[in-house]
Structure formats: structure tokens, C-alpha cells
């Protein structure tokens, strides 16, 4: 498009008619300059659309930043709660451990009653009376104890030294159904010190300690022996 035609497009011509006093018709024309929006109506619409788009983008950005801030705050609170919970658990575990150590220390320092001997954390009583296995266990229970349970080589050596004269009942028995040897608390054997050839398949046996070699033997309940209690 030429410059002349472009310039012509920027103006608007208005025509008017009127009758003068002599009755003659006169024609007049006026030229008006058009502004940009009137010349190009699409320009104003495009500007409005762009402005509205910018407002929407700004609103979306604000919402995104707000959501990010909220999520970051929640994450911080969760981390803080986790750290606090862990600190509480560690404190409780430490207190429990200290109490257990103190209880163990008090137990080790506790004196055994007269006639009893200490080994490790337990007190032991060696009877002079001879009774059956069942009677021996009842006697120990009346004393607030039970027949001795031997769970280590060191304890076995101590019991052997404690019982140098003959055999004494210990808290070990075998049940006829499964032929399993169990201690009086129901636990299975972790250490075994049987004398060679002293384990048979008979229905019910009770264990005694110790023979001349410091080993366990087994006998029927009706037999009478001394016994060793542990508490």
C-alpha cells in the first residue's frame, strides 16, 4: 500500500446537506482524523487479550509460590516432628538401659541369704537332705527359688565344685511325649554336659549332677538325692 493511500485511510469524510434562505441546497463535507482503535479495531482487542493473559499468568505464579511455601512449611514440620520423636525414643531407651544396668548392679551386689552362695547374678543353696526330684523342687520353690538351671560352662564348673560328694538333683527333666529335655522354666538345652552313655530312650527321667567326672547323669524320680536350688 502506498503512503498516499495509507494517509487517506487515516481520515474520515463527513458529508452534510442544508437548504439556504433562497431555497437552494448546499452540500458541505468535513474531514475527521481517525485514531488507531478506529482505524484498526483488532489492535485494541489484542491489547486487551494480552493484558488479561498477563493477569492470569501473574495469578498462577502467585498460587504456585503460595503452594510451594505451604508444602515447604509442612515438610519442615514433619522433619521437626521426626527429629523430636527420635530424641524422645533415644532418651527413653537410655533411661531404660540405665535402669537395667542399675538393677543388674544392685542384684550382683545384693548379699545372698545365710546358707546360700553367690555365683554371677544368682544365689545357690546346696541341701544336705535327700529327697525325690519332685520333693526337691517343691523344697526349692518354698524357698522362693527353683532347682538349678545350668546355662554355661562356668556355671557347670561352679555346680561341680559345689557338689563334690555324690550327685544332686538339678532342674532338668525329660517328657515322654517328645523325649525332649527341658529346664524347669520350659526352656530347651543350650549347653549339655552329659556323661557318656547316660542318655537312654526311657519314658521319664530326671537329671542329676555330677558324677566323678563332673558330668550329668539321669535317674527316676523315686530315687532320693540331695539337690541344688537357684534364685
From TrEMBL:
<dbReference type="InterPro" id="IPR001304">
    <property type="entry name" value="C-type_lectin-like"/>
</dbReference>
<feature type="coiled-coil region">
    <location>
        <begin position="87"/>
        <end position="114"/>
    </location>
</feature>
<feature type="region of interest" description="Disordered">
    <location>
        <begin position="16"/>
        <end position="37"/>
    </location>
</feature>
<protein>
    <recommendedName>
        <fullName>C-type lectin domain-containing protein</fullName>
    </recommendedName>
</protein>
<dbReference type="InterPro" id="IPR016187">
    <property type="entry name" value="CTDL_fold"/>
</dbReference>
<dbReference type="Pfam" id="PF00059">
    <property type="entry name" value="Lectin_C"/>
</dbReference>
<keyword id="KW-0175">Coiled coil</keyword>
<keyword id="KW-0812">Transmembrane</keyword>
<dbReference type="InterPro" id="IPR050828">
    <property type="entry name" value="C-type_lectin/matrix_domain"/>
</dbReference>
<feature type="domain" description="C-type lectin">
    <location>
        <begin position="119"/>
        <end position="230"/>
    </location>
</feature>
<dbReference type="InterPro" id="IPR016186">
    <property type="entry name" value="C-type_lectin-like/link_sf"/>
</dbReference>
<feature type="transmembrane region" description="Helical">
    <location>
        <begin position="64"/>
        <end position="83"/>
    </location>
</feature>
<feature type="compositionally biased region" description="Basic and acidic residues">
    <location>
        <begin position="16"/>
        <end position="31"/>
    </location>
</feature>
<dbReference type="GO" id="GO:0005886">
    <property type="term" value="C:plasma membrane"/>
</dbReference>
<keyword id="KW-1133">Transmembrane helix</keyword>
<keyword id="KW-0472">Membrane</keyword>
Amino acid at each position: 500500500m502506498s503512503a498516499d493511500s495509507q494517509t487517506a485511510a487515516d481520515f474520515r469524510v463527513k458529508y452534510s446537506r442544508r437548504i439556504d434562505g433562497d431555497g437552494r441546497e448546499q452540500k458541505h463535507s468535513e474531514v475527521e482524523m481517525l485514531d488507531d482503535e478506529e482505524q484498526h479495531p483488532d489492535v485494541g482487542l489484542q491489547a486487551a487479550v494480552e493484558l488479561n493473559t498477563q493477569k492470569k499468568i501473574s495469578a498462577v505464579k502467585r498460587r504456585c509460590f503460595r503452594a510451594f511455601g505451604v508444602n515447604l512449611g509442612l515438610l519442615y514440620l514433619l522433619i521437626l516432628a521426626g527429629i523430636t520423636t527420635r530424641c524422645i525414643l533415644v532418651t527413653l531407651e537410655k533411661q531404660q538401659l540405665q535402669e537395667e544396668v542399675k538393677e543388674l548392679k544392685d542384684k550382683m551386689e545384693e548379699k545372698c541369704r545365710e546358707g546360700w552362695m553367690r555365683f554371677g547374678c544368682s544365689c545357690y543353696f546346696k541341701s544336705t537332705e535327700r529327697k525325690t526330684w519332685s520333693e526337691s523342687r517343691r523344697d526349692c520353690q518354698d524357698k522362693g527359688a527353683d532347682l538349678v538351671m545350668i546355662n554355661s560352662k562356668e556355671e557347670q564348673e561352679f555346680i561341680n565344685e559345689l557338689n563334690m560328694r555324690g550327685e544332686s538333683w538339678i532342674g532338668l527333666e525329660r517328657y515322654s511325649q517328645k523325649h525332649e529335655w527341658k529346664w524347669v522354666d520350659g526352656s530347651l538345652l543350650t549347653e549339655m554336659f552329659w556323661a557318656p552313655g547316660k542318655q537312654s530312650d526311657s519314658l521319664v527321667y530326671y537329671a542329676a549332677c555330677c558324677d566323678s567326672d563332673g558330668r550329668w547323669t539321669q535317674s527316676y524320680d523315686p530315687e532320693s538325692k540331695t539337690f541344688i536350688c537357684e534364685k
